[in-house]
Specification:
The radius of gyration is 14 Å and the shape is elongated. The two termini are about 30 Å apart. The strands form 3 sheets. It has a two-stranded antiparallel ribbon with strand order 1-2. The protein has a two-stranded antiparallel ribbon with strand order 3-6. The protein is mainly beta.
């Protein structure tokens, strides 16, 4: 017997003015998405949209968004 559960996922579209290699890339995740600077601990501006609707901007060194499945 095979059973399964439906789980929510996060689809994240990356927009980058400085890195054309990742600009427009879409990442899917089951647990969480971690956003932040990779090279240093500087603050960054993160523009947040949900279903293509603007929510807010934040300035921080990073952000974690998790699904109901939970953050790792």
């Amino acid at each position: 017997v095979i059973t399964y559960e439906n789980r929510s996922t996060i689809n994240t579209k990356i927009s980058s003015k400085n890195n054309k290699e990742i600009d427009g890339k879409i990442i899917s995740s089951l647990n969480d998405i971690i956003l932040g600077q990779m090279k240093d601990n500087k603050m960054t501006k993160i523009n947040i949209y949900i279903d293509d609707k603007y929510l807010t901007d934040i300035r921080s060194d990073g952000m974690i968004v998790s699904t109901p499945t939970g953050s790792t």
